[in-house]
Amino acid sequence: MDAIVTHLAQDHFFSKLDLSKGYWQVAVEENCKHLIAFATPSGLFQFNVMPFGLVNAPATFNRMMRILLKGLRHVDCYLDDILIHTPTWEQHLNVLSAVFKRLREANLTAKLSKCCIAKQRVEFLGHVVGKGKLEPQLDKVEKIKAAPRPQTKKQLRSFLGLTGYYRVSYLIMLR
């Protein structure tokens, strides 16, 4: 994640795509279906698509997306979120076209209501990127501000996890 958000400051055009029901768009190979079978009172069933909850599902999905988008410059992907970022409008249109072509060829669809196309600023992975800035999302900052003071080690670890996520944003803003 850090590598994705730190190199976006010089870009001027952003599009964010969110794939619909990410894992459910990944077909399970026939010879692997028995590995994710489940039993009910009505009998034994097998998934035809990758279900949520499998320990290897995120890595499998991420590998599929890396292969799908390999060779495309100005494209970053984190699981089912795709960020297209370019310095020029012409580049943006070309990269968008290439990404849409690859998604179509792979029979992957994006959820239109969660996509932002050709914006100067977009929210991506808990950050707002654009106009030469990288900032944490305001609702996330408010959540940190409103968090109660940790009273136990477990609460402290949780709070440090929440605040540590934004360490890169703050280091960049301090430069």
Automatic annotation (TrEMBL):
PANTHER family: PEPTIDASE A2 DOMAIN-CONTAINING PROTEIN-RELATED (PTHR33064:SF29), POL PROTEIN (PTHR33064). SUPFAM superfamilies: DNA/RNA polymerases. It comes from Stichopus japonicus. Transmembrane segments: none annotated. Residues 1-129 form the Reverse transcriptase domain. Gene3D superfamilies: 3.30.70.270. This is Putative retrovirus-related Pol polyprotein from transposon. It holds the Pfam family RVT_1. InterPro entries: DNA/RNA_pol_sf, Rev_trsase/Diguanyl_cyclase, RT_dom, Viral_Replic_Matur_Polypro. It comes from the Eukaryota.
